[in-house]
Amino acid sequence: MSRKARTTVKRRGVIDGIVTVPVRPPPPGEGKRGEKGHLAYLLRQAQAATRLQMERSLADLGVTPPQFAVLTMLKAYPGLSGADVARVALLTPQTVGVIIRNGAIRKSPHPVHGRVLQWTLSPRGATLLQDCRRRVMALERRLAAGLSRNAELAVRRWLAQIAAESRRES
């Protein structure tokens, strides 16, 4: 079949002589994109939606979700090396090296292992993180809306358990 004929056939909704009706997937939350879907797909779908919301809420601060993760991990675990920051932020070392915000992170030589640089938040980075956290906490409140404290705790434990088990298996 020529290219032109294939194009014409597709436009008419006819494939191999059979009239077809365009199929539209259901919106998120319905069918296989809802309760009937695979858990791993549903987790990925929820993560993608949450990441998009986070990107939008942080955009005017000039911060991306990976940058927010780096700032958050440095607040929680000051003094990590760049490689360690990448590991706990679930990023590659190359990505962490590229996304470092100018002036938000301070690097200093490790007292024993001089070639290793310890990363900490600068005062500018701490202020930036506070601004980001206000927005991300609002997003998290929306995510947890409708959940009881016990249900939210159960979800948090379940998600943490998935990550911990994955780490043990690798």
Question: Which features does this protein show?
Answer:
7 helices; elongated; mainly alpha; two-stranded antiparallel sheet; 170 residues; single chain; Arc Repressor Mutant, subunit A
Description:
With 170 residues, the chain is mostly helical. The protein has a domain at 62-145: Arc Repressor Mutant, subunit A. It has helices spanning 3-12, 39-58, 65-76, 82-88, 93-99, 123-144, 149-169; strands at 14-15, 18-19, 105-109, 117-121.
Order of helices and strands: HEEHHHHEEHH
Q: Portion of residues in helices?
A: 55-70%
Strand arrangement in the largest pleated sheet? 1-2
Q: Look at the structure and give the mean pLDDT.
A: 86
The 3D shape can be described as elongated
